[in-house]
Amino acid sequence: MPVASDPRSAWIESTLGAMTLEQKAGEMTQLTLGALLEGTNPYEPTEPHRLDLEKVRKAVETYHIGSVLNCGNHAFTLERWRELVSQLQTVAAERFPATPILYGVDAVHGANYTTGAALSPQQIGLAATWNPELVYDLAAGTALELQAAGTPWNFAPILDVGRDPRWPRFWETFGEDPMLVSRLGVAAVTGTQSVGVAATMKHFLGYSMPLTGKDRTPAWIPERQLHEIFVPPFRAAIEAGAMTVMINSSEISGIPVHSDEALLTGLLREELGFGGLAVTDWEDIKYLVHRHKVAATYKDAVEMAIRAGIDMSMVPADLKFPALVVELVREGRISEDRIDASVRRILAVKWDLGLVAESNPPAEHVVDASWRAGQRQACLEAAEQSITLLKNASQTLPLSADRPIWVSGPTAHSLAALNGGWTGTWQGTDPRYDTPGAITAVEALKSSWNADVFHFELAMDFDAGDIAAAVRDFRRHDGAQVAVVFLGEMPYTEMAGNDEEVQLNANQTALVEALAATGASVVGVYLGGRPRRMEAAVEALDGFIMGYLPGNEGGTAIARVLNGAVNPSGHLPFTWPRKTGAHLTYDHKYTETLDLDSSFTAFNPLFEFGSGLNYSTLELVDFQTDQTVYNLQDTIRAQVTLRNAGQRAAEDVVHLYSHDHVASVTPSVWRLAGFERVAVQAGESVDIAYELPVQQLGFVGRDLAYVVEPGDFTLRIDSLTTTISVNP
Ligand code: BGC
User: Fewer CB within 10 Å: N-end or C-end of the chain?
Assistant: First the structure.
């Protein structure tokens, strides 16, 4: 038993010492709020949501639950949140020992379950900003909202690497590159925790690359790839002090992760040194029985998951779990010491968040209208930095706000299409929880245009007759300089987003083609969280903008990019495939692009990773390194000059890539080695410096240990290359 030398350990040890086994098992139990509300179905509680105090007392006093999550599937006002949570804490304060409830929510793009909170772009859009400082600030802002609500545990960020757009949670990721995910992941974790809210690294491990593409289906990931691609963001977040982790609901190579001791204890705790709280995902211990079929009974499953390394079970609605934990200990199948280890980790988080009376509660933060206005401004800037210009034939963009435009498309007049899932509700599709006062893209265009904005409304399922009517309407407004068509998808979360095609809906392509056939200029704006195959539509468009899921301020940001008030600076955090069946990430291997004629040319995405145009004329020149020969412990100092030969101030993200000429494990064609976001005034130049430790040029070797092999490497910025050597 650790020596209780400081107030934190003293509280943890005295609390643990005073707990019965039943209380310890309860502490490890996390219940969904719906199970504590009035009504008979925890998934559809009676409206308006009210705590059923009898259920609360039973859960807190009889079952000793340690934690509650989420919201009964819809948003509340901040005042309502405070009331709800304080009612729970009042009951918890009466138990002995008095352990507070640890309240966790999914606030993945702002406090998306608090009515009126500022909503930022979803993670995939934030990734397109390539701006860790901005991600840090937004995460801290979200955390302050959560803290004010009494819910100081955020189930974010997602550190899964988005390698495959078929996976329906792709939009929740920071994109396809492990370094980008790591840097933004660390920013999100440290931003969240900077104001005393716990971040959650999720979902450990290998969740984002199921073989079928469908959510929660099996992944087959060899250990080398696991370490090369999926571990780095978690390693970085652990080093940055992430307090909690959530486990992957699915399986890797036949082993459900919730039952995988090698991953949850061997890798997570022993190798990566994680000392925080590990929570299961939704109902996942039970699923070891019902879905994965590696346990015959729920009790066996509980034993398996605890042995593997979980601390807390998101049960989420019934209270059988704690009794099974107690039985397992009484029967000698799990030691009480093992239970104590988990309870210590849970109590430590409660202390560190200032939930315990004797600990240091964080200063009370006032969430008022003016603070929220500041947050909305930050969200607007994030959306503006994310928006990615991918095509601009004949300089169609920017448009003049002094000339009329015609606007249509199924995502033009939808807040849901701007925000995506986890907004107001889990699926993000219930308009009753739209943020009051938030405006859609077409409303934003109307308010930022001096000339007329003609809107022709279309729902998602429009047909050929609607297209003909749209074209007639467009022709009628022949003063409009351009047709702006909002394409994309409506929100989905988790399995609801499984999609066997991942193509742009055929009616949207037909709409674009019909408008283009009029001979007018057509600009497409895509609102959605993953790249869909849409070569024909992009071909027919004059201009094409990727808006991602930019949040409530996204409409305004898009309007400002379209009319040139903002010079776009977002860059794709993923590779946009051209063909079904031809998806490769940018860091593919040579032989993945092998073609019949023995060339390596079969890599032809619609848009490359890192793509992003702007309205200036930017040139990169003078790429240099400080030396040409390095030792293994050296840092390469590289520099390039970005020159703005255009008429407008610009921001740009400049990527540094590396390529290992010969390696004992087949090298990637390119790997991201660094990136910088810089501003450059019209007519001016800026020097951009990169520091690249030689140690970063390594890979997971044949023996599964990380290795940097001496030899030659090419470094590349845009089309500028230089070769360096690393000495043995
Ligand atoms: C998701 C998690 C989420 C949890 C709680 C699960 O279905 O996979 O990402 O944190 O629900 O809402």
Answer: C
